[in-house]
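Archive maintenance. Older records in this collection stored only the sequence; we are now back-filling the structure field for every entry so that each record is complete. The fields below show one back-filled record exactly as it appears after the update. Entries are processed alphabetically, and Posttranslational modification protein is next in the queue.

ARCHIVE ENTRY
Title: Posttranslational modification protein
Organism field: Tepidicaulis marinus
Length field: 231
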Amino acid sequence: MRRICTILARGGSKGVPGKNIRPLGGKPLIAHSIVQALASGLFETVAVSSDDEAILRAAEEAGADELVLRPADLASDTAPKLPAILHCVEEVEKRHGHSDVVVDLQPTAPLREPSDIQGAVALLEESGAPNVITGSPAKCSPYFSLVEERADGTVGLSKPVDPPLARRQDAPRTFDMNGSVYVWRREVLTADMKLFQPGTRLYEMPEERSVDIDTALDFEFAAFLMGRRRA
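Back-filled structure field:
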């Protein structure tokens, strides 16, 4: 199978300014995802899409095969991600031909391992699933400890069942999506740009590899875990 890896990184982050090129563990944040993609040995092409020239330069220095300048309408705060992924894939395919599998790596998830990418892709290709997402076991179960606020201000379990479950072990397993790895069959990405498809599967990752950097505190936590791993 021909596989493309996309890594989408906008400039102008509000939570952590310049986060995609901010140093983490001695290299720009985005470089970690590029290195992991290359180390997985899965891809004909590793492509980085951005509206920011500084990010594209950092991506080139980290070894990305293709740099795609993202149009402004696909790089705003409100622009959905899937059309931007498809734009990147189509630009790469103009130069390298059609692909069978598309893997998108979130640049803000630097603690994944190449084996996580390999496992998610293997799950897609061996199960026949249309797409695969990644996640870690949920900290709060909607059946026991995740509550939501009602219109009148009161709260209740997010997912109550009748009769109530007596043991946590009897509840379905639930996961926190970690945004680390997304895998699609190419034809599914084109035909129906929705994340959840009939048959979507989840590849489980441990919590310590599931940090998604959205705030300055997330950045500090990722740096701590990366330092502990190296020690």
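Update note: Helices lie at 29-40, 53-62, 81-96, 114-127, 186-191, 216-230. The domain at 3-135+175-222 is CATH 3.90.550.10 (Spore Coat Polysaccharide Biosynthesis Protein SpsA; Chain A).
Entry marked complete.
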